[in-house]
Amino acid sequence: MSKKIIAICDYGMGNLHSAASALEHVCADDQQVVVTSDAQVIASAERILFPGVGAVRDCMQEVKRLGFDQLVKSQIDAGKPVLGICVGMQLLLTHSEENSGVDCLNLVPGHVRFFGNDFTDEHGAKLKVPHMGWNNVFHSQDHALWKNIKNGQRFYFVHSYCVQLDNSAQELGSTEYGVKFSAGLCQNNLAAVQFHPEKSHDAGLQLLRNFCQWQP
Amino acid sequence: MPLAKRIIPCLDVDNGRVVKGVQFVDIRDAGDPVEVAKGYNQAGADEITFLDITATHEGRDTTLHTVEKIAAEVFIPLTVGGGIRTSQDIRNMLNAGADKVAINSAAVFNPDFVAEASAKFGAQCIVVAIDAKQVAQGDNPRWEIFTHGGRKPTGIDALEWAEKMVAYGAGEILLTSMDRDGTKNGFDLALTRAMTDRIPVPLIASGGVGNLQHLADGVLQGGADAVLAASIFHFGEYSVAEAKAFMAEQNIEMRL
């Protein structure tokens, strides 16, 4: 019997090895992880991971060049579970401030904003950008992706821009770093996280395991 | 502030073997970097830094395989430094599974390399490693950067250099005090504080850790965002968990 494919969309941005090995570590026996840029493979997949690393403009250019914008949208419309990670989350939104402003896929209404220069916390203490390291993620709603993950669990982040959703009902989780921002979003069979589950030790693996089992 | 300070054990690897020795318990082969990295991953390390001190081409290929093996089993961030000179070196390391690369001497010889690397791979994976030595004491202390493992002076002011590297696209600075490295007398706190106050990106303090108070001081007095240590963990003097508990007791935000 052929295995159900979990496709990791490869559009040339960054290292997908970590995400692939983490998913392989937690997926079911009848699931197979494939890193691919092949539209047919992605279209035949059971579920899809949409990663992203680096600058939004470069990511958007490659996504469009490879036709991944239409492809990903059609897969979401088909009802498949799709998980965006890091810049893969930011790309789903309406617009990003990065690179002097970039229009994104507009699949989820909201904006991606810069943390800021001379960024400080509520006590006036300097905050470094990028936001790099392990921070608490609070559940904004019950969700299958949070199964067996405690509210406030730390995950590994590395990013200089953060997501502000137009519709707070679509927030999966939130984190605070000078400002409160969306650490995750969900919209039916689409979900995304700003942090890196593949780099977040046991809790990250649990989230990926939950994604492998998610039946939206 | 909820963002946790990080503890980063550092492995010096030569030809695919951890050198300087690692002697903590429950590891079958203390010289195998994969086993050592797995041990630190289990112990709660927040990241792992892997310093490749291999001089030969064959050794570099071995390093890539080692990074691949670690990345397949260790699901926390992995930084690889040592001998990163070209974009191809960076691409190879990232493809092997490294999350960040640390650039040291190559940045000094060709600062534009940092700018190119950051533009190509993103600032989030470009760490600039700075080896600094104090060259003036007193009211106006001054530190200069050294290359070749601290043997060659450059005449470049360390604080100005750090600022320049951030402007060129470094996403993080790994600061090693050559005066303190290996002494177990603690970080150079004045240097650490002076640099972290000058740069907007995270700073990892390195060099001189001999006990847990040194780690805490690096954060509390030095203002470091992360602390790197090798021997105190390698020889089992302290576990990562003990270090975290100790730091948390001093009201440092930690991932416990």
Automatic annotation (TrEMBL), chain A:
<feature type="active site">
    <location>
        <position position="196"/>
    </location>
</feature>
<feature type="active site" description="Nucleophile">
    <location>
        <position position="86"/>
    </location>
</feature>
<dbReference type="Pfam" id="PF00117">
    <property type="entry name" value="GATase"/>
</dbReference>
<dbReference type="InterPro" id="IPR029062">
    <property type="entry name" value="Class_I_gatase-like"/>
</dbReference>
<dbReference type="GO" id="GO:0005737">
    <property type="term" value="C:cytoplasm"/>
</dbReference>
<dbReference type="InterPro" id="IPR010139">
    <property type="entry name" value="Imidazole-glycPsynth_HisH"/>
</dbReference>
<comment type="pathway">
    <text>Amino-acid biosynthesis; L-histidine biosynthesis; L-histidine from 5-phospho-alpha-D-ribose 1-diphosphate: step 5/9.</text>
</comment>
<keyword id="KW-0963">Cytoplasm</keyword>
<feature type="active site">
    <location>
        <position position="198"/>
    </location>
</feature>
<dbReference type="GO" id="GO:0000107">
    <property type="term" value="F:imidazoleglycerol-phosphate synthase activity"/>
</dbReference>
<comment type="subunit">
    <text>Heterodimer of HisH and HisF.</text>
</comment>
<dbReference type="GO" id="GO:0016829">
    <property type="term" value="F:lyase activity"/>
</dbReference>
<keyword id="KW-0378">Hydrolase</keyword>
<dbReference type="GO" id="GO:0000105">
    <property type="term" value="P:L-histidine biosynthetic process"/>
</dbReference>
<keyword id="KW-0315">Glutamine amidotransferase</keyword>
<keyword id="KW-0456">Lyase</keyword>
<dbReference type="InterPro" id="IPR017926">
    <property type="entry name" value="GATASE"/>
</dbReference>
<keyword id="KW-0028">Amino-acid biosynthesis</keyword>
<comment type="function">
    <text>IGPS catalyzes the conversion of PRFAR and glutamine to IGP, AICAR and glutamate. The HisH subunit catalyzes the hydrolysis of glutamine to glutamate and ammonia as part of the synthesis of IGP and AICAR. The resulting ammonia molecule is channeled to the active site of HisF.</text>
</comment>
<dbReference type="GO" id="GO:0004359">
    <property type="term" value="F:glutaminase activity"/>
</dbReference>
<protein>
    <recommendedName>
        <fullName>Imidazole glycerol phosphate synthase subunit HisH</fullName>
        <ecNumber>4.3.2.10</ecNumber>
        <ecNumber>3.5.1.2</ecNumber>
    </recommendedName>
</protein>
<feature type="domain" description="Glutamine amidotransferase">
    <location>
        <begin position="8"/>
        <end position="211"/>
    </location>
</feature>
From TrEMBL, chain B:
<keyword id="KW-0456">Lyase</keyword>
<dbReference type="InterPro" id="IPR013785">
    <property type="entry name" value="Aldolase_TIM"/>
</dbReference>
<feature type="active site">
    <location>
        <position position="131"/>
    </location>
</feature>
<keyword id="KW-0963">Cytoplasm</keyword>
<comment type="subunit">
    <text>Heterodimer of HisH and HisF.</text>
</comment>
<dbReference type="Pfam" id="PF00977">
    <property type="entry name" value="His_biosynth"/>
</dbReference>
<keyword id="KW-0368">Histidine biosynthesis</keyword>
<dbReference type="GO" id="GO:0016829">
    <property type="term" value="F:lyase activity"/>
</dbReference>
<keyword id="KW-0028">Amino-acid biosynthesis</keyword>
<protein>
    <recommendedName>
        <fullName>Imidazole glycerol phosphate synthase subunit HisF</fullName>
        <ecNumber>4.3.2.10</ecNumber>
    </recommendedName>
</protein>
<comment type="pathway">
    <text>Amino-acid biosynthesis; L-histidine biosynthesis; L-histidine from 5-phospho-alpha-D-ribose 1-diphosphate: step 5/9.</text>
</comment>
<dbReference type="InterPro" id="IPR011060">
    <property type="entry name" value="RibuloseP-bd_barrel"/>
</dbReference>
<dbReference type="InterPro" id="IPR004651">
    <property type="entry name" value="HisF"/>
</dbReference>
<feature type="active site">
    <location>
        <position position="12"/>
    </location>
</feature>
<dbReference type="GO" id="GO:0000107">
    <property type="term" value="F:imidazoleglycerol-phosphate synthase activity"/>
</dbReference>
<dbReference type="InterPro" id="IPR050064">
    <property type="entry name" value="IGPS_HisA/HisF"/>
</dbReference>
<dbReference type="GO" id="GO:0005737">
    <property type="term" value="C:cytoplasm"/>
</dbReference>
<comment type="similarity">
    <text>Belongs to the HisA/HisF family.</text>
</comment>
<dbReference type="GO" id="GO:0000105">
    <property type="term" value="P:L-histidine biosynthetic process"/>
</dbReference>
<dbReference type="InterPro" id="IPR006062">
    <property type="entry name" value="His_biosynth"/>
</dbReference>
<comment type="function">
    <text>IGPS catalyzes the conversion of PRFAR and glutamine to IGP, AICAR and glutamate. The HisF subunit catalyzes the cyclization activity that produces IGP and AICAR from PRFAR using the ammonia provided by the HisH subunit.</text>
</comment>
